[in-house]
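=== RUN LOG ===
request id: a7f3
mode: sequence -> structure
chains: 1
length: 311
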Amino acid sequence: MDDKIIITAAITGSVHIPTMSDYLPITPDEIVEDAVRAWEAGAAIAHIHVRNPKTGMPVSDPDLFMEVHSKIKSRCNLVLLPTTGGGMNQTTEEKLIPIKKLEPEMCSFDPAPFNFGIFQIAGRFKTYKHEWEKEYLELCKNVTFRPTFNDDIIYAKTFLEIDTKPEFEIYELGHVSYVKWLMEENLVKLPVHLQFVFGPMVGWMKPSVKHLVLIHDEAKEVLGEDNFTWSVAAGGRFQIPITTTAIAMGAQNVRVGLEDSIYAGRGIMAKASADQVTMIKNVAKEMSLVPATSDEARAILGLKGLDKVNF
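=== RESULT ===
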């Protein structure tokens, strides 16, 4: 499958607030519709967060996760990759409740502490659609996503037990060593799957070709070139340039979607994640690559199959 590229669509996330875009999926049905449209456009994987249907606030309600996953599965065969990011103040046990319930093929795994510096966005708006939005943006000044080593062990053991492949979210160079440690402890299956995450937010790697090449080289040196597959996600206006660079470097997987950017070109609001899927699909086409189907993605990543999930 050397001519295939896996496209992931991150549907709604927890960075953007409803004030930023009228097209941000909020309700379960809106999230489902956006995911299915992304699949129709060429996405093989959908990364799933959920929100309070009335206010649009990011939440981790297991019932909402179940509703969204079940409805998507009834309409297409997307690989569904729910978040374990959860709320900023949630415990490890709380974050794992939806995963244990769903037993998905994949899920995200933040193995190392990182900051979620979206507070600068608050200064861009004089008014908000919902009362919670400004406080939510500024909350991250006092909250760090800080999984401990023991948290990592709990996560990794859980994923092994339910045969869910983790996607390691790598926010900086040192995070690669956390994955190496879990490999040494036999707490992950090989090859592991990494996602290098870049964003304009405070505390994240600056989106640049230099940093992408640097962290990819670090992963090859620390983990061994044959021991990992990799994906790239980049926020805001960097989404298409950085994922395009990753494709040129031989990435197996790239991520786009409304979680990472609400635009589909300069000054053009994306009306759906499918808009960005189409953009990166067209880029890949110019490099003689075609989007992998969901079943091809399963084969490339070694997933257990849609018939073995619990939704």
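=== NOTES ===
Residues 69 and 154 are 24 Å apart (CA to CA).
Residues 4-308 form a domain with the TIM Barrel fold (CATH 3.20.20.70).
=== END ===
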